[in-house]
Amino acid sequence: SERTFIAVKPDGVQRGLVGKVISRFEERGYKLVGLKAIVPSKQLAEQHYADLSARPFFKGLVEYMTNGKAPVVCMVWEGKDVVRQGRAMIGATNPLESAPGTIRGQYCVSVGRNIIHGSDSFESAEKEINLWFGKAGELIDWEPATWGWIMADN
Ligand code: GTP
Ligand code: MG
């Protein structure tokens, strides 16, 4: 079933918001299939944000993701429509435009410190999951006991 890559950025980790983010996805009914904290290499961050490499904030963005002042908490979540729903739960890129009640709309005010990343399409999700969880065995297939109560077809 569908999977997406979600990451709590170093500002979210510093601010103690990892648990809140996990709870929102868990409580919605999504399944956690991968989780780790890492300080990404410069190369990994540059690859992850490759489509932004021409933007003026790119260098600062990579510095902030990789400087080790806090890790990035990487997750893979699985469930119905999770890529699109994940983006909706996160809210607009600029927190000043994120709806109240979204993660960014509730917890932040700066576009450069917007605490969380979420894949923006099915294709990005696949690419990002392979990039951040490249090693075999890091993603776990499992069946939550609640699955049948959450995943009805109609
Ligand atoms: P991600 O989920 O992190 O990919 O955010 P997004 O998809 O909502 O936005 P986008 O991919 O366009 O930008 C990636 C990240 O770059 C954003 O989340 C911000 O952290 C950062 N960013 C984007 N625009 C700006 C900007 O104008 N200034 C600064 N400082 N950072 C920006
Ligand atoms: Mg993006």
UniProtKB/TrEMBL annotation:
The chain holds residues 83 to 236 of 236 of the full protein. This is Nucleoside diphosphate kinase. The active site is at H117 (pros-phosphohistidine intermediate). It comes from Bifiguratus adelaidae. ATP binds at K9, F57, R87, T93, R104, N114. Belongs to the NDK family. The keyword Coiled coil does not apply. Residues 1-140 form the Nucleoside diphosphate kinase-like domain. It is an enzyme of class 2 (transferase). GO terms for biological process: CTP biosynthetic process; GTP biosynthetic process; UTP biosynthetic process. The keyword Membrane does not apply. It comes from the Eukaryota. Its EC number is 2.7.4.6. Its cofactor is Mg(2+). One of its GO terms (molecular function) is nucleoside diphosphate kinase activity. Keywords: Kinase, Transferase.
